[in-house]
Predict the structure.
Amino acid sequence: MNFFSDLSPGFFDDELLGEQMRRISVFLDNKSQRGAIAAPSLPKHWQGYEDALTVRINELMAEMQLRRIPTPDWMRLTDESIVWPVLPENSLREQYQVLAERAEKGKLGRIRLPRSPHELWASFKYSTLARNHKAYLQFGKQVASRTIEFDSLLVQLTAVCRVKPAVGCLRNSLQHMWGYVSRHSSADPNRATLAELLAEVQRQAVDHQDTYLLNSTSLSELAAWLPSIPEAQLKG
């Protein structure tokens, strides 16, 4: 399969999820073992962005773990700022179309493919809140007023998930998510660590099939960043 996607792994079916994981793993292994690419395995715009690929592979593993698919250990993230390749709008639209074609064949991801800016925003809502409250409000206004097109929103929200979550915003987002499953949970969202709170939200969302959370990128992708946050900051 000669396809590599920048989109959220939550939109991938299981087959594509595993294929993307293997593709990045081969790329990184070749770089570390020989210092050169044995064979082209990623688009040119991704070559030279190994730190970002490390985040990407953690995102894939986070989604696999949510689906209870066995994975290796987390990849260690750099302490330095991570530089990502540019997200070309046309490329994302083409990638989205590939997923739509797979969906027509019954190859479905965890998150249903959005058909409108409103549905797209609903999927990324809590991923955005975990980064920046002002951006969360701004996107919400743009979607409500219909002043942003689907393709532009897709690019901007995909870029949002490339930003390391701010600890305070992350806790706020997780507490909002916990509200959807609170009736099933005995956890205290004010005392649980961030990792504990996310794990509880994930468990309850899956066990009770909470539709809103199961269609949210945040349910898996936030876990990919937890290993990069100092343990002291993970506590309430």
About this structure: The mean pLDDT is 90.
